[in-house]
Amino acid sequence: MIVCFSGTGNSLSVAKEVLNHLPNHSLFRLDHSNSACMLSEYVEDNEIIWIFPTYSWGIPPVIKKAIDSFNGNNNAVHHMITTCGDDIGNCALQWRKLLKRHNFNTGCAFSVQMPNTYVNMSGFDIDAPTDEAEKIERMPERVKDICDTIKSFNGLPIDDVVKGSIPCIKTSIVYPWFKRFEMNPAKFKVNKDICISCGLCASHCPLCNIEMIQNFPKWGDNCTMCLRCYHHCPTKAIDYASKTLKKGQYTRYKNLVGE
Ligand SMILES: Cc1cc2nc3c(=O)[nH]c(=O)nc-3n(C[C@H](O)[C@H](O)[C@H](O)COP(=O)(O)O)c2cc1C
Ligand code: SF4
Ligand code: SF4
After folding, report:
1. CB 239 within 8 A of CB 186
2. Which part of the chain has CATH 3.40.50.360?
3. Is the pTM here over 0.90, yes or no?
4. What is the mean pLDDT of residues 232-247?
5. Which residues have CB under 8 Å from 56's CB, separation 6+?
6. What pLDDT does 42 receive?
7. Most buried among 27, 192, 241, 257, using CB within 10 Å?
8. Which CATH number fits domain 185-257: 3.40.630.10, 3.90.226.10, 1.10.260.40, 3.30.70.20?
């Protein structure tokens, strides 16, 4: 079974590519009514592949919640594939520790570079079109190699990831700070002069965290900072802390996540 969370479609496109090579797997998307708690039902599969984006060199809160409530075959082997714009710090180690806490067996961990979606702070923006195209072009070959490694897994855990510089500091210090202060849905604002009240941000939020109140979006507290609402707004009416007004939107997989 593949368990996938994807904000803007990169991880979902990787999951679909994995399915081409491992067609015996089913795909469980953590999205909308497929909430993490549905995974608490007993899962008999003996191979679980977690596919999700890296957020601030760590695991998205929605994935942590899903692993915490996962109720599966104790003999199953778990692998992870995380997509990232650049590097993942010690995200793989964090994932291994979390699974070990639940006595699950961890196998291999992989990272796949995909177009960047993080735009909320100064200095961060979506990739230039040429960089985006290069990453997309490299993805199928990378996924094929990953699936070959998973197929020949012999019990020895492998980390095939790009950690980047100072991974300990990024995952142990920056990640908790980021989770506390920069995963704050109260910082989202809608520009009412631009918003056309289409309601897509609300209907597409994977955690159902947006309500339309008097024709405009209102954010609740249950946010994993996937930025789907920001990137997929058709009029770019959404801003985060006045930091994204001049940033780009990443829309390549808009239709894929809306499928
Ligand atoms: C909140 C947030 C934090 C991110 N942090 C990182 C990071 O630490 N390292 C990195 O290389 N990319 C980071 N990114 C980029 C995403 O991991 C990357 O674009 C990913 O492929 C998005 O996957 P998705 O389209 O499935 O949501 C971040 C993106 C977001 C939205
Ligand atoms: S998606 Fe954009 S335009 Fe549509 S309701 Fe939300 S903020 Fe307004
Ligand atoms: S509110 Fe926006 S950023 Fe938060 S989970 Fe929903 S779509 Fe993602």
Report:
1. no
2. 2-179
3. yes
4. 98
5. 170, 174, 175, 178, 179, 182
6. 72
7. 257
8. 3.30.70.20
Quick one: which atom of ligand 3 is closest to the CA of 204? 7
Pocket of ligand 3 (CB under 6 A): 7, 185, 205-207, 209-210, 219, 223-229
What are residue 57's phi and psi, to 5 degrees? 60, 30
CA 209, CA 7: separation in Å to the nearest integer? 13
| Most ligand 2 atoms within 8 A of CB, residue of 189, 190, 210, 244 to mutate | 190
Cα first-last separation, the chain: 20
CA dihedral 89, 92, 96, 99 (to 10 degrees): 110
Cβ-count burial 190-224 (b if 16+ within 10 Å, e if not) = beeeebeeeebbbebbbbebbeeeeebbebeeebb
216 C-alpha vs ligand 2 centroid, how far in Å? Answer: 7
Tell me yes or no: is domain 2-179 CATH 3.40.50.360: yes
Q: pLDDT tens digits for 171-206? A: 999 999 999 999 999 999 999 999 999 999 999 999
Extract the tokens encoding 76. 């199953």
What are the pLDDT digits (tens) for 30-79?
998 666 556 666 788 999 999 999 999 999 999 999 999 888 888 999 99
Nearest to 238 by CA among 248, 230, 250: 230
